[in-house]
Each structure stands twice: as structure tokens, then as C-alpha cells.
Write a structure and sequence with these properties.
Elements (H helix, E strand, L loop, with lengths): L5 H12 L4 E4 L3 H8 L10 H11 L2 E4 L2 H7 L2 E4 L15 H10 L5 E7 L7 H10 L5 E7 L9 H6 L4 E4 L2 H10 L1 H5 L4 E4 L1 H32 L3 H9 L20 H14 L7 H24 L8 E5 L14 H11 L3 E5 L4 H7 L4 E2 L3 H5 L4 E4 L4 H4 L3 H4 L7 E4 L6 H6 L3 E4 L7
Parallel strand pairs: 1-2, 3-4, 4-5, 6-7, 8-9, 8-11, 9-10, 11-12, 12-13
Helix pairs in contact: 1-3, 10-12, 10-13, 12-13, 13-14
The structure holds uridine-5'-diphosphate-glucuronic acid (UGA).
Function: Catalyzes the conversion of UDP-glucose into UDP-glucuronate, one of the precursors of teichuronic acid.
Protein name: UDP-glucose 6-dehydrogenase
Keywords: NAD, Oxidoreductase
Length: 434
């Protein structure tokens, strides 16, 4: 397993759980040391237990040695990151290329590379050529086996996925299906495709999810203008089985290390293929999403009387979503940063993402608890829907804030309850307080 970040570490531990012998290859010394000692270097519920079980059973090991990896296996998963290139929409494939260039020269005989990273369509075909050009004696095939796991649900999504997709030559796809035999035996559908279809399935799925979120956020702007309630609207349209209620939660919009960069890389690749017109709607999806952040800053500002200078704002939540410590492209931190730039004194609290937040936004103030963050606040902004924030008793905060103003960035709070406790309750997309 090349790359032991979210995807690779989870997949490595899950494959050991299925009874396979797994060698995780990680070149980051800090991550490698943590994994070897049974520590997961990020927050993922259930993964520490699975990792330790794998290590204890002897089925799972970690190394940074490519030569060892070449000798250990004939099936090689690629799970390294494909971040957005600086200043461009396109994906940076340097980590994927580096795996091929460091591994292929050590290979002899027949080997199969199984791509899991999210890549621009056409990458797998290029890697096939690139890898074989570096082998003296043998042949390397490439299949693509995209991953659909969500942070916070990574183990369930890996061991009980909605579907398994494998693209490539029939014989190689069969070998991949053998790896997943227990999962397939439990009834998970297997879809075998060609290489470009498998690559595209992943970015199409993430684009659809991003579009669904931006759709409801666009409707939320109209709801606000018309005095309607977007949450009730989402419930009502979501009852239609063709639409479905999931991913129709309006609020601060999507962030994280996947949806934003994936839709941008998809647009860039479509442009290279001469199909850019087909994806112009994704530009709108992206801009609706980014507009949520500025709209939220405006809502906080108007809730503070139109001027943020000198206002104390408590921001509850820093992770891009609950049950995660990931702050990559986090809407919560982006808004916190914008509020600070507008002159507010911002104090952030998150149950899990404090260390990562401090690294990314060192100039913000951080508190150790909800109470500490809210002390003396002119407004409390709930920016990530952690259950501990949803369950806050407003009466506990009333005595410690300067003004009782709560802004529900994820439309997750019981607005009526806050209202009844004497708070001004605000949310983007119409205020659901009757
Ligand atoms: C996403 C996809 O859901 C996974 O299927 C995919 O495998 C993964 O990207 C990936 O490409 O690796 P993830 O980034 O973990 O997973 O997070 P999601 O649960 O999809 O949430 C993404 C963002 O959308 C979060 O910021 C969340 O707060 C936001 N969101 C989600 C909404 O604003 N509204 C919703 O209704 C749902």
C-alpha cells in the first residue's frame, strides 16, 4: 500500500482485517513512526483498534523501503494524495509519479498496480507506459479501483461499501475481485469497467455530491429572499425517492481535501480533452459554494450591528465536517479568518481539530472548551455540526456571553430552543424559528 494517509492507512488496516498480508509504504518519517507503533496520525473512529489488531496479528507492517515493497508483493495499491496544483485547477500527480518511478525499477516478473488515488481520466493509461518503460524483465499491468470512503466513516465505507468499481483488463480485474472476496460475498455489487470509466466514476460521483450541496445552497439564497425555510424545503423535496434527502443540508457548504479540489481538477481535465463546455456548471457549483463563506461573514457582521471591528466572535468548529480533525479547505476556518481580517477578535474551539487548526491559522485565538470560547462573545457561530455543539444548552452560555446572538452555520441547532432561552437565532437560508 503506497501512501498511508487517510485512504492508504484505512485500506491497509482493512485489507489486513480481511486476512491479507499487507505492507504499508510511507515516506513521511513522522507518519511511519506513528503507524509502526500503533498510533493513527489523524482522527478516524475505530481505526486505532483495527491498526493495532493488524500489527499484533503480524499481517500488517509498515516501511519506507521501496525495494522491500517490490520483493514483498505482486499487487501494489497506490493511495497517495493528488492535491490541487498551486495557482491552478489541475491535480498535482507528482506523488503518483514518484511511486511509479521509485517502485518500477525494482520489479521483475508480473506485477499489478491498483490505483486508488483520485486522478484525471487518462492517468492510468499513462502510468502503464511509464511503469513498463522502467522494468527490464517482466510486465506491469494497471487497473483503477476508485475509493468512495468518507472521513469519519472510513472503515464501514471500506468493509461494507455501496459498490466496488474496478477498471482495466478482465484478468487483472478478476485478481482485484479476489482481494475483496469476503466483501463481495456479503452482497456488495462489483462493477467491472474499462480504465477511463473507472477513473471518471470517482470524479463524477464527487461532482454530483458537490452539485447537490450547491443546489440546496442556491435554493437557500432564494428561500432567504422570499422568507421561506430551506430545511423544510429540503425535507419536502427529499421525500421524492428520485431526489433523496441526503446531501441536501444547506449551510456553510462543502470543504475538505476532496470535493473542492476534485471538481476543479475535473474541469481542468475536461478542458484538456476539449470538453470544457460540458462542465461549465461546475464553475457555478464552486462559486455558489465559495459565496456561502462570504454570506456567512456578512450575516455575522449584520448580527453584530454592521461592524465587526472590536467584536468578540466565538467560532465553534474548525474541522471541515464533524468526526474529523481535517481542516483542509475548511469553511469554518475560512470564515474565522475572514472575520479576523474584518477586525473581529475571533476565538475558535473544536473538539478534535485544534492542533491542525493552529498549524494552518496560527493568528487566530484558540480556546480549550465551548465555555472558554464563548466567554464575553458578541456572537457565537456554530460552523461545524459536532454533536456536542448541537446539544449545547443555551442557558449554560447565557450568563457568560456579552450578547445572546447565535448564528447556525450548519442549520443544525434547535432554533426554537435558543429563541425561547432569549437568544437571537440566525441562519443562512431563512431562520427556522416560528
Ligand atoms: C467525500 C465523498 O463523500 C466520499 O464519497 C469520497 O470518497 C471522498 O470525498 C473522497 O473523494 O475521498 P468527505 O470529503 O470525507 O467525502 O466528506 P463528505 O461527507 O462528502 O462532506 C464533504 C463536505 O460537504 C463537508 O464539508 C460537509 O460539511 C459538506 N456537506 C455535506 C454539506 O455542506 N451538506 C451536506 O448535505 C453534506
Amino acid at each position: 500500500m503506497f501512501g498511508c494517509g487517510y485512504l492508504g492507512a484505512t485500506h491497509a488496516a482493512c485489507m489486513a482485517e480481511l486476512g491479507h498480508h499487507v505492507l504499508g509504504v510511507e515516506t513521511d518519517a513522522h507518519k511511519l513512526a506513528a503507524l509502526r507503533s500503533g498510533q493513527v496520525p489523524f482522527h478516524e473512529p475505530g481505526l486505532p483498534d483495527l491498526l493495532r489488531r493488524g500489527l499484533d496479528s503480524g499481517l500488517l507492517r509498515f516501511t519506507d523501503d521501496y525495494c522491500e515493497a517490490a520483493q514483498f508483493a505482486d499487487l501494489h495499491f497506490i493511495a497517495v494524495g493528488t492535491p490541487q496544483k498551486k495557482g491552478e485547477y489541475a491535480a498535482d500527480l507528482s506523488h503518483v509519479h514518484s511511486v511509479i518511478d521509485r517502485l518500477a525499477p525494482h520489479l521483475s516478473g508480473r506485477h499489478l498496480l491498483i490505483g486508488k488515488s483520485t486522478v484525471p481520466v487518462g492517468t492510468a493509461a499513462d502510468l502503464l507506459v511509464r511503469a513498463n518503460a522502467q522494468v527490464d524483465d517482466g510486465h506491469i499491468d494497471v487497473v483503477w479501483n476508485p475509493e468512495f470512503l468518507r472521513e469519519g466513516h472510513a472503515i464501514d465505507d471500506t468493509l461494507s461499501p455501496d459498490r466496488i468499481v474496478v477498471g482495466g483488463a478482465a484478468q487483472s480485474c478478476e485478481r482485484v475481485a479476489e482481494i475483496y472476496a469476503p466483501i463481495l460475498a456479503a452482497g456488495t455489487p462489483l462493477l467491472v469497467t474499462d480504465l477511463p470509466t473507472a477513473e471518471l466514476v470517482k470524479v463524477a460521483a464527487n461532482s454530483f455530491l458537490a452539485t447537490k450541496i450547491s443546489f440546496i445552497n442556491a435554493i437557500s439564497e432564494v428561500c432567504e429572499a422570499a422568507g421561506a425555510d430551506v430545511s423544510l424545503l429540503a425535507d419536502a423535496i427529499g421525500h421524492d425517492g428520485r431526489i433523496g434527502r441526503r446531501f441536501l443540508n444547506a449551510g456553510l457548504g462543502f470543504g475538505g481535501g476532496c470535493l473542492p479540489k476534485d471538481i476543479r481538477a475535473f474541469m481542468a481535465r475536461a478542458g484538456e480533452l476539449g470538453a470544457d463546455q460540458a462542465l461549465t456548471f461546475l464553475r457555478e457549483v464552486d462559486s455558489i459554494n465559495m459565496r456561502r463563506r462570504t454570506a456567512m461573514v456578512e450575516l455575522v457582521s449584520t448580527s453584530c450591528g454592521g461592524d465587526l471591528l472590536g467584536a468578540n466572535i466565538a467560532v465553534l468548529g474548525a474541522a471541515f465536517k464533524p468526526d474529523s480533525d481535517d481542516v483542509r479547505d475548511s469553511p469554518a476556518l475560512n470564515v474565522a479568518g475572514q472575520l479576523q481580517l474584518r477586525g473581529a477578535a475571533v476565538t475558535v474551539y473544536d473538539p478534535c481539530a485544534m492542533a491542525n487548526s493552529r498549524r494552518l491559522f496560527p493568528t487566530l485565538s484558540y480556546a480549550q472548551s465551548v465555555q472558554e470560547a464563548c466567554a464575553g462573545a458578541d456572537a457565537v457561530l456554530v460552523a461545524t455540526e459536532w454533536s456536542q455543539f448541537v446539544e449545547i444548552d443555551p442557558d449554560d452560555l447565557s450568563p457568560i456571553v456579552r450578547r445572546r446572538v447565535v448564528i447556525d452555520g450548519r442549520r443544525c441547532l434547535p432554533g426554537d430552543r435558543w429563541h425561547a432561552a432569549g437568544w437571537v437565532y440566525r441562519a443562512l437560508g431563512g431562520t427556522p424559528v416560528r
